[in-house]
Amino acid sequence: MPRSLAAAGALAALLAATAVAQDPRLGRLDATARPLVAGVIDSARAAGLPTEPLVQRALEGATKGAPGTLIASAVQRLAADLGRARAVLGAGATPPELEAGAAALRAGAGPAVLAQLRRSRRQTITVPLAVLADLVASGVPVDSAAAAVLALAASARDADLIDLRRAVERDIALGAAPTAATAAAMAGVFGADALHVNAGARDARPGRP
Fold it and tell me: Under DSSP, is residue 90 helix (H, G, I), strand (E, B) or coil?
């Protein structure tokens, strides 16, 4: 075996052993995924990014029986999303904010939406970001979801935003169109003036950078 291949194999084995020593849960990964995931986690840790979401993503893939290369790719993409979220939200962003920000970015919200949310609130924006991502996952167009959350984030409590999400999900389950469900929930929870959110969504179209 060429020395370069032997050295690469030894390095992979060392990374895998170190990963398991640092977090025994990674021992559930197969021999292909373990060193690759370990490298991503080590890089994220060195960059000051939260690593628990990366571990959980890897374990989710292992539970589903995904191939090691796919698990490693998914973990790498999440690490990149966490880095993008921190670039927008700032070095002081908390791990929950970064994880929620990464989910919002994956949902299609542009960096400008995240930046505007950061400016709109002094307190944590974990819940507004999570609600935005959840609304999109429920079928609400990203522009409408972003406009709704941006319209409310400055003054609404986290509990109000969660109520909004629940109301939208309930109405969609009952057969309402996602955009109509969002408008109805805004009106029901926050008053008739909130109906203007859909017009704002059409004008602003913040979903893509």
Answer: coil
Confirm if 16 and 42 have CB atoms less than 8 A apart: no
Residue 115's domain spans which residues? Answer: 108-209
Closest CA to 109 of 92, 76, 131: 131
Domain termination residue (choose one: 47, 62, 92): 92
- Long-range pairs for 156-161 at CB < 8 Å and ≥24 separation? 156/190, 158/127, 158/128, 160/189, 160/190, 161/127, 161/128, 161/131
Structural domain tally of the chain?
Answer: 2
pLDDT digits (tens, 9 = 90+) for 85-109: 999 999 999 999 999 999 999 999 9
Give the torsion sign (CA, 34, 35, 41, 44). negative
The last residue of a domain, from among 59, 92, 125: 92
Q: Give yes or no: residues 119 and 31 share one domain.
A: no
pLDDT recorded at residue 187: 86
Do both 130 and 201 map to the same domain?
Answer: yes
Question: Considering the domain boundaries, does residue 100 fall inside one?
Answer: no
Q: Name which of 73, 83, 158 is nearest 117 in CA terms.
A: 158
- Here the tokens at position 44 are 């994220």
Instruction: Answer yes or no: pTM beyond 0.85.
Output: no
